[in-house]
Design goal:
The protein is an all-beta fold. 0% of the residues lie in helices and 21% in strands. The chain is globular.
């Protein structure tokens, strides 16, 4: 975000049917250093080959408050447009037989 890595959240790759990619989406947890590893079915199996729409979520976490047992809506740490694969404007192409590394530049004011 603005040149610094996110330290928590999730990255999701959704197959782009408009470009001929179908199947399951892949999800990865963002680590404290900003890296992530995608999984589709089992840990570390990555995303399927093809074109994907990308979305990223990162929310503030808070401790459970017994005086407010109803969960409060968490505050997003990034603009909400990045959480919607159709609005995020982020895409990725996973290629067979290659090491696929992706960096996504997020801006606090997109």
């Amino acid at each position: 975000m603005d040149g610094k890595p996110l330290t928590k959240g999730n990255v999701q790759f959704t197959p782009d049917k408009d470009k001929g990619t179908t199947g399951r989406m892949a999800l990865g947890k963002i680590n404290e250093d900003g890296t992530f590893e995608l999984m589709t079915i089992t840990s570390g199996d990555g995303a399927q080959v093809g074109h994907h729409l990308v979305s990223i979520e990162s929310y503030e976490t808070s401790a459970f408050d017994p005086n407010q047992p109803v969960n409060q809506t968490p505050k997003s740490l990034i603009p909400l447009k990045y959480a919607d694969p159709k609005k995020s404007e982020m895409t990725a192409q996973v290629k067979a037989g290659e090491e696929n590394n992706f960096t996504f530049e997020l801006k606090s004011k997109p």
